[in-house]
Amino acid sequence: MAWIYLFVAGVMEIAWAIGMKQSEGFTRLWPSVFTLSAIAVSLFLLSLALRGIPIGTAYAVWAGIGTVGTALVGILFFSESTDLLRLASIGLIGAGIVGLKLVTP
User: Fold this and answer.
1) Does residue 105 surpass a pLDDT of 90?
2) Taking Cα atoms as reference points, which of 95, 103, 90, 101 lies closest to residue 4?
3) pLDDT at 40 exceeding the cut of 90
4) How far apart are CA 105 and CA 103, in angstroms?
């Protein structure tokens, strides 16, 4: 169950990163409310995941999911660069996430 909590926490990190962009510096009410709610849910689920996953692994995977997911959303919805080096770097982060999952009980 800890890995499920961690995965959903990572997805919520993607949500709050995108929400932060949409809030325009917390000047728009509803995107700001969404962002703050997503941050709270993400951190709460991360704290639940830490009951069963070592902190170094959990934090790295949480941040990695957020990083890869946010970068992909940026590419797909905000016309961000698809430069080969950028995509390869995102892939390396993804490989690190998978590697940490494989070596953590």
Assistant:
1) no
2) 101
3) yes
4) 7
